[in-house]
Structures are given as C-alpha cells and as structure tokens.
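Predict both folds.
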Amino acid sequence: MIRIFLTGYMGAGKTTLGKALARKLGIPFIDLDWHIEERLHQTISELFARRGEDSFRELERSMLHEVAEFENVVISTGGGVPCFFDNMEFMNRVGTTIFLDVSPEVLFRRLRVAKRQRPILQGLGDGELKAFIAKALEERAPYYSQARYTFNTDELDNRWQIDASVRRLQELLNLPTDKI
C-alpha cells in the first residue's frame, strides 16, 4: 500500500510532481485544496475569508484525515498543513511524507509569475515578495523538516525535468518503476 504526502511551500511543485508521480505509478492524485473546494463548493480563499484562519485550519485537518483513509494515493497538502495541530505527526504515522524543498530564488521566480492565482501575494512588489518568502520558509522550516524525506524541486520547468524528478523520487522511495 502506498500513501504519499507531498509537503512544501506554495510553488514548490507539489501539484506538478504529485500528478506526474501518481500517473507514473498508476494511482490517484489528490490535491487537498482541490478536495476541500470540491466538497464545500467554495474556493480556499472564500473559505479562509468566511471562516477565519482557525476554523479553516480545523476544516483542513478534518479533510486531511478524510483523504488519509485512501490507499495507493499521492496527496498534495496545502503549504500550511504541516504547521498546524499534529498534522505532520499524523501524516508520518499513516504514510510517507516528502518535503519538496526549493530554493528561495526559484520560489520567487515561480511565485512572481503566479501572483494573480495566489491572493495572499497580490500587491507585493519584488522586494516584498522575496522577504515574504524568506520569512515564511524560516517559520515553516521546523515543521517541514519533520518529513521523512526531503527532495529538491528546483528543476521542474519542463517535461524532461519533471520526468527525471519522478525517476529520482521513485528511486529515493524504492517505489516500482512500473504501474502498480
């Protein structure tokens, strides 16, 4: 049975690598944020605004426990999931956790072009965005470092790099190279 949790900051490649890994293994991919939005028929931004952070984080935790019941699955968590409650301990207990580590420079490049899709980043200039990323990575490092594995995702810019990363990840986790 395979249950993989991908953790890391926004822009780390959790969805990109998660989809590719799941496809290679022939198992489902679940993006926790998408799962929440589908179940509640609201965007993450709307839920966060309406409920407030505390209530949203409780909902997020509940949905994490729900998707953790699935077997043979790759799950991409929201960037903040490991930082609340006992979420990281829980994920380590029920599956394999991987922190997708990416350099601040690469994160800046990725997030700079994706600011429209990420409301929390809208209105930030380049210097502010760099400072925002650095502060968030520093605050979240103690949580992300609890993952069983750390995997660098600086190179996910094209299909070749994504495929090479999937192969390296399969080797790291000793996963089959053929579909399950």
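Second protein follows, with its predicted structure tokens after the sequence.
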Amino acid sequence: MEYFGNSFVGTSGVNGDRFYISTDGTTIALSDGASGAGKDGKVLMSECCIRNIEEAPFSKSGLSVEKYMQELIWKINNDLIKLSQQRNKYIFGTLIICVINDGVVTFASVGDSSAFLISKGTIKRVAKGKKTYDILVQLGLFTDEQIEEYVHSLPEQMWSMFDTFIPSVVPKYTLESYRLEKQDMILICCDGISDYLDGKELLKLISSDNLEKSVNTIIDKARDKSIESHGKNQYDDLTLVIYKL
C-alpha cells in the first residue's frame, strides 16, 4: 500500500482542515471545520475529530468496522457539543473516516466533503453525504440537478444551510463498504477541491506511480479554478489524501 496527503491553507489565512493516516494504513480521515464556526472554531472542530481517531485507532478497538464507526462518531459528536457549550459558539464541520480491513474499505461520511473509489481506470463518488433537501428529491418534487441549480443561485454563504454537519442531536452519517482489488485507490478531499473538480477531472490528474505529485497537482488545479470562478484571489482550504492498495 502507498498513501500521501497534503493540506494547503486558503485565503482566510487559517486552515480548518485536518487529515489523518494511521501508521498501519488501516484508517484514513479528513475533517473540515466550517467557516461559520469562526477562525478558531473551525480549527478546534478538526482537531477534536482527529484527536479522537488518534486516541482510539481501529486496530486496537476489537470492534467490527460498523460498531467502531458508530462509537467513534458518537464520541466525536458529544465532544463537539461539549466544546460548543463551553465556548458558547457552534463548533461544527464535516468529517470522512475510511477503514480498510480484510480487503474491504468502509466509508463513514458526514457532510459534503468527498470520497472517491478508483478501480480499473474508473472513478466513483461514494458515501455521499445527505443534504437537508434530499426528501424533496425522493418525493419527486425536484431532480438533483434542479435543486443544485437553485441552491447555487443563492449567495455562497447560504449554501451551508442545506448541508449536514457534525455535531447534531443525533449524528447522521452515510456508511458504505466496498471490496478492494489490487491497484485500487481511495481519494478523500474537502469541498474546496470537489466544488471545482469533478470525478473525471480528478482521475485525469492522478498518476498511480506518483501519489505525492498527484495530490499536489490536484490542489494547485482546484486553487486555480476557484480563483478563476471568483474572478479574484479567493479559495478555500484545500486538503486531499490518496491511498493506493
């Protein structure tokens, strides 16, 4: 197995993203503190997530993957609630955790950071976080494309109103598992990247022979596309991890 991750601070000057790769390669995580939590708050959120994962690694848990994910997410959720109450400010954000065990990868996702599975030259987005408006799509009132168009016509600072975050009273997360084959890759990234590069674009920028170069190339490309989209020097924190079996 091989893996590489990197994180680049956005134009806010404070990086609210954190990523984690366990030394045994069984666990990968990415947390993205929300800008609405404030510069200090978004850092505290991500640090809380990663600290909990470091202190309770899957390899020492003795639990099934599903039970481990459940207990870990509830622990992080409760710690973030306590932190929010102590600071009298909502400390929140998004989280992805991946556990690789016995040739199977399991993703747990809260919010709009992205996870992709790359296999045999194809890329698939997995464990996509639920939006608060998903029920409208399920009822057939709108299509995904219509909702996305409407939401993105709003001022940018309002988009997060439709996302799912941690903590919540009862944490909601997407849980999915996939069997891995040799040479398969896992990619997880923050929305600062996935908002500007879709799966096909990401796949074109990945060289399986050089993960470090691939990660840094993708970060540079997402930054450039964000600047182009905004018409000024503006981009979010940019964080990406690639894991190759």
